[in-house]
Amino acid sequence: MTTDDMYRLGVGVLLVCFLAACGGSDDVGSPTAKLDGEWELTSGRGPEGEISIPPKAQVTLEITRGSMRGTSACNMYEGRLVAKGADIRASRIGGTEMACDLARSRAESHFLAALQAIATYRRSSNQLTLLGEDTELNFDKVPTPPPSSFTGTHWELTGLLQGAGPGGMMSEPRPARMAFADDGTFEGTTGCSAISGQWTDNGDRVTTSEVLIGARSCRGLKGEQHEHVVSVLEAGFTVDTEENTMTLDWIEGERGLYYVDR
Length: 262
Fold this sequence. Notes:
The chain has 3 helices and 18 strands. It is an alpha+beta fold and about 260 residues long. The protein folds into 2 domains: about 5-140, Lipocalin (Beta Barrel), CATH 2.40.128; about 155-260, Beta Barrel (Lipocalin). The chain starts with a helix and ends with a strand. Residues about 1-30 have low confidence and may be disordered.
């Protein structure tokens, strides 16, 4: 099993946890807004001992209105934070289950044990400390990256959007890319074939012309994705960029493309 396969399996396990075991209505308060933000662990200890972060590994914590998520040196995790005054606790923690080397696994185990032991916190402008019995987690604020530009960015397709609103769905695509240039041209791939052409900003939408599609025959799932990408690009679309993501929504129907700047 490849690393990508293990990652996808782990994400599936995480989703099952939150849909089946961790669901339900919130019957507790949310953390104060001053905890919101993205943080990176610089040092820490907990019930299992000191947290030694291996080289090239990261331990992060992103807090948004009482929810939390991040990386734990090895896997991704999610959960809830509940705060009342200076008291705080973590709950409903779940994560992916990708296998890692011993150093990353040990750091992850120590961090998650410490996260579950927190009871209070200290916050300054760029630092956050979570405290509990035999526990201290020290974080630095992660600066917000500038938003990626529609043009001049090499976008990687990470989602095929079908439907709108709460009933909409996003499926995982085959590898594909896209780039829009300032001179009004675009080029990329559909996951099966090359595609290129001209683009024009009409204010409320982007339209394309002179679209050229490679001669490869696309069948099965490749063909379905190919048709999905081509239909959005040829029909015209709206563009929504946020930080390092871009969403193209099809003007003529409930279909779209979700890209990430990597």
